Inverse folding.
């Protein structure tokens, strides 16, 4: 079933001609063939899916631009980094989990899938070393197919490729296990704990999105056998729907595991990645001669180059995109309402800048429901109990923007409340309710 | 976020400083709160790095773990933390009042100690500390236990667990985060995500000009985050080398680590107290005391459980407990929403905007009575309002009387847009004539709400014994260990989660014999539990 679906995983590759032209174009944007392309890792791909509307990010990532260096050159360096304490622990934990020739890891997997764990030393761990990412990917593809049916195989740090917008991205999962039935499982090793059977949902979600990208790459590997392996051996290969998440249990360094269902994440990521093909459209709109190479350009020139691609900034970007500080300062400069959060946009209809929102809220040209006073003149007198009939539902306001009308109401209610100050009714009788013993929280 | 809050944020952004979101303080603030600013080690679960705590701004107490991977140093930290925190948490145990409920008299602690942390992750860290400490074994529990801890450590674990759990009840104030407190009362011109940084949030509220993202030439943040996570640049360039020197027994290395950690904590400490002062300047909402009384009950109940020798809180709530907690939190949320609106015209404005309340002027009052043997007053009040409540004829509205009582009315008719003809149906005393002051006069300003002022939960949940097994009770499943685990806490076997759990781990609880053991067993100890 997975195999059948995998044919749609990547949109039919554009014809060689267009794809070569796009690659050329992206290389030029990166600053020429001498500037190394920054590979998209699974984390970046998963983060991309978090803000699919951002053209800037799609193009920069698609072109393999080093966004960190770019942000630094723009004067808004990203604040990412990993503490070496976390790094050391993560590596130590992974080494521990993969000890004994992968037997421990396969045991964890079997405990979840109900399969019989192999005898000691019965897990084959093929050597995947090869030159360059393409070589390693080919090696991985062969190892995945050569894995003997009926036995367990563990690929330690295999290399997979995923074609994104015409160019390959190299991905390195923690491990891929080949089951005795020939199917493949993604294994993610993380160092956040599973405490009393539960883990931080945000971290589990991120791990699932990352694993979904690996699963997609495995699907692609399944669909395109390596050239030097013309015929598929008769083993029924398939990518499993769930990945194994391995984490420390409670406060210890002992591993525990859980299966995470990838079907939903995989479908979502697949859709986002297929939309990335529009990178070529975005690249078309960028003027010829534009380059995002920080060397040899002033911050001003760079900023102008970056500005040729529109961004869709939201505060969530701060957690995942190196360019977020730059985009934020731009969004602030233009007064975009999304600097306050994505949800804000929903209530404001077509009003996209703070200035227009405030203008609409304080618009004295319209009769506000609370009389002609606007929030501007708050404090000049009590206008409560206006005798104006409600114009809100009348014919006059039907032409008006409902968001603006709601804003005017909000502004007048807010101004009225601020004038009024704390309510001054006598304290309520405390006997009206008695806190029951049952609701006291344990 | 309601439109009124959005608007306030825009105004804050335009004016460059925060705008009020409340005209009163909606949370209880203790005279002497315990401010607790913890730091944790990156990548480790529940490995504290240090903390600054105290009830006096001038005298913070600094606790530091110079090598977080050393178990003995961590345990020493926890023991010292217990020695500092427990006296505060136990300071109000014996000062009690007596409350009369019908025939029953119950004890109620006159006050409850309050714990303040910088932000929501800080609250979570308190929960995590509680979880990591409450199952620790002392030498008295088990003379053979590896790494026994002082008796205070598991006790503090139970208190912190209780405080952490209580903080999930809307409107509670035993454990509060400063970002949440400030964010409830002021709107900043940044997103809620950025408001999680206490320094940034306070920059808006205290109108001090600070760039919390600025770094010095060495790459260090000029305004370190308020924990519990540290900045990776600090870890990598300052802390790690200092810890290495400590490991190498370099003289003075421990003092250096302490200074580094104090330097990270100090700005947050000052911010915490600045925040306390800002909040103190707001008058307390009228119903805050009533909610604080519930907190005092919660504190008293926990005291009683500890004194009765009950085992620590289980790792996971069983289904019955979880359902009861959820129901009570939902009720607390509804109550909080109603009380905040009644205490604060700004909160009421948000409800009026959404059509859940309306305010206006009384234009006409017509005396009327109900029919029947003993006619009761049912005066008709016409209110003119420009609000747009979602109220249909026959619908109920409620208002607060000037003496604090409550009055309900039903909408008799809406003769024209903006006019509401209400029939008062309660709150007018027992006589034939309405009690004085209970019927508004023409020209009065009145505010009616469509929501109940003291919402009650749905029908109560059945007792655990009467709960069908499909819903977690009664305790028939599991082995002897399960029934033991139930102890005096009223828990039953067949644990079901109420938080998010991984399905596989749930299976493990059913199949793994170790998971079926008493839910209060100590955590597994490995020779090198940290890496």
């Amino acid at each position: 079933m997975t195999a059948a679906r995998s044919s749609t995983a990547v949109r039919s590759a554009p014809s060689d001609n267009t794809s070569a032209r796009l690659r050329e174009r992206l290389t030029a944007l990166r600053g020429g063939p001498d500037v190394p392309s920054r590979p998209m890792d699974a984390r970046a791909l998963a983060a991309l899916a978090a803000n699919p509307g951002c053209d800037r990010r799609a193009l920069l990532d698609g072109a393999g631009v080093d966004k960190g260096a770019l942000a630094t050159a723009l004067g808004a360096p990203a604040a990412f980094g990993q503490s070496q304490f976390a790094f050391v622990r993560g590596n130590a934990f992974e080494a521990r989990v993969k000890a004994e020739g992968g037997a421990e890891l396969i045991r964890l997997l079997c405990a979840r899938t109900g399969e019989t764990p192999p005898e000691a030393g019965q897990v084959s761990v093929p050597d995947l070393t090869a030159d360059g990412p393409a070589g390693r990917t080919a090696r991985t593809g062969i190892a995945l197919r050569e894995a003997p049916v009926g036995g367990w195989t563990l690929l330690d740090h295999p290399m997979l490729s995923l074609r994104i917008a015409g160019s390959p991205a190299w991905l390195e999962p923690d491990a891929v296990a080949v089951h005795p039935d020939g199917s493949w499982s993604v294994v993610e090793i993380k160092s956040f704990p599973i405490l009393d059977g539960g883990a931080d949902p945000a971290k589990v979600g991120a791990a699932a999105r990352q694993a979904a990208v690996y699963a997609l790459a495995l699907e692609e590997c399944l669909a395109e056998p390596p050239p030097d392996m013309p015929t598929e051996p008769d083993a029924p290969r398939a990518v499993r729907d769930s990945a194994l998440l391995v984490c420390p249990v409670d406060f210890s360094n002992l591993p525990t595991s859980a299966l995470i269902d990838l079907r939903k994440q995989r479908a979502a990521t697949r859709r986002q990645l297929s939309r990335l093909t529009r990178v070529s459209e975005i690249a078309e709109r960028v003027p010829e001669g534009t380059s995002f190479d920080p060397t040899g350009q002033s911050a001003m020139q760079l900023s102008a180059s970056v500005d040729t691609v529109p961004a869709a900034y939201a505060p969530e970007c701060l957690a995942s995109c190196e360019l977020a500080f730059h985009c934020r300062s731009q969004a602030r400069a233009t007064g975009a309402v999304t600097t306050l959060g994505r949800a804000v946009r929903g209530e404001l209809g077509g009003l996209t800048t703070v200035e227009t929102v405030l203008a609409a809220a304080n618009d004295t040209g319209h009769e506000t429901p609370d009389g002609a006073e606007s929030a501007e003149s708050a404090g000049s007198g009590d206008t409560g109990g206006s005798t104006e009939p409600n114009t809100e539902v009348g014919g006059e306001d039907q032409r008006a923007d409902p968001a603006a009308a709601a804003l005017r109401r909000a502004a007048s209610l807010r101004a009225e409340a601020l004038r009024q100050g704390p309510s001054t009714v006598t304290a309520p009788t405390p006997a009206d309710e008695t806190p029951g013993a049952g609701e006291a929280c344990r | 976020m309601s439109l009124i809050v959005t608007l306030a944020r825009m105004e804050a952004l335009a004016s460059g400083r925060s705008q009020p979101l409340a005209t009163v303080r909606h949370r209880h603030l203790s005279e002497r709160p315990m401010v607790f600013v913890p730091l944790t080690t990156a990548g480790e679960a529940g490995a504290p790095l240090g903390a600054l705590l105290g009830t006096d701004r001038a005298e913070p107490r600094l606790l530091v773990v110079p090598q977080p991977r050393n178990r003995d140093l961590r345990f020493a930290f926890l023991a010292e933390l217990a020695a500092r925190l427990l006296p505060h948490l136990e300071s109000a145990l014996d000062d009690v009042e007596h409350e009369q409920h019908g025939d029953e008299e119950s004890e109620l602690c006159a006050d409850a100690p309050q714990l303040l942390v910088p932000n929501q992750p800080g609250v979570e860290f308190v929960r995590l500390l509680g979880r990591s400490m409450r199952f620790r074994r002392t030498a008295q529990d088990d003379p053979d236990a590896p790494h026994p801890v002082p008796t205070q450590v598991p006790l503090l674990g139970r208190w912190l667990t209780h405080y952490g759990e209580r903080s999930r009840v809307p409107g509670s104030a035993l454990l509060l985060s400063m970002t949440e407190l400030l964010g409830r009362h002021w709107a900043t011109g940044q997103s809620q995500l950025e408001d999680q940084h206490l320094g940034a949030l306070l920059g808006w509220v205290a109108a001090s000009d600070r760039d919390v993202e600025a770094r010095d030439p060495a790459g260090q943040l000029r305004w370190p985050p308020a924990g519990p996570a540290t900045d990776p640049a600090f870890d990598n360039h300052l802390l790690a080398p200092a810890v290495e020197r400590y490991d190498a027994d370099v003289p003075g290395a421990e003092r250096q680590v302490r200074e580094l950690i104090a330097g990270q904590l100090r700005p947050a400490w000052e911010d915490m107290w600045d925040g306390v002062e800002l909040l103190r300047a707001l008058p307390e909402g009228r119903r805050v005391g009533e909610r604080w009384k519930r907190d005092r009950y919660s504190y008293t109940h926990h005291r009683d459980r500890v004194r009765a020798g009950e085992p620590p809180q289980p790792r996971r709530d069983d289904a019955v407990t979880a359902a009861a907690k959820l129901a009570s939190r939902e009720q607390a949320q509804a109550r909080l929403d109603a009380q905040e609106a009644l205490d604060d015209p700004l909160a009421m404005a948000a409800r009026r905007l959404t059509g859940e309340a309306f305010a206006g002027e009384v234009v006409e009052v017509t005396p009327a009575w109900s029919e029947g043997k003993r006619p009761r007053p049912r005066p008709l009040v016409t209110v003119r309002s420009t609000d747009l409540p979602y109220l249909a004829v026959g619908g109920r509205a409620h208002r607060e009387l000037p003496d604090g009582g409550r009055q309900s009315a039903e909408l008799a008719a809406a003769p024209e847009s903006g006019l509401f003809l209400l029939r008062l149906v309660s709150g007018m005393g027992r006589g034939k004539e309405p009690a004085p002051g209970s019927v508004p006069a023409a020209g009065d300003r009145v505010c009616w709400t469509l929501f109940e002022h003291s919402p009650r939960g749905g029908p109560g949940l059945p007792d655990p014994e009467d709960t069908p097994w499909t819903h977690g009770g009664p305790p028939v499943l599991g082995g002897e260990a399960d029934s033991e685990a139930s102890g005096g806490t009223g828990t039953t076997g067949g644990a079901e989660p109420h938080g998010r759990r991984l399905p596989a781990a749930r299976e493990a609880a059913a199949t793994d014999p170790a998971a079926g053991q008493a839910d209060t067993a100590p955590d597994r100890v490995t020779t090198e539990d940290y890496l």
Remarks:
- Residues 18 and 81 of chain A are 37 Å apart (CA to CA).
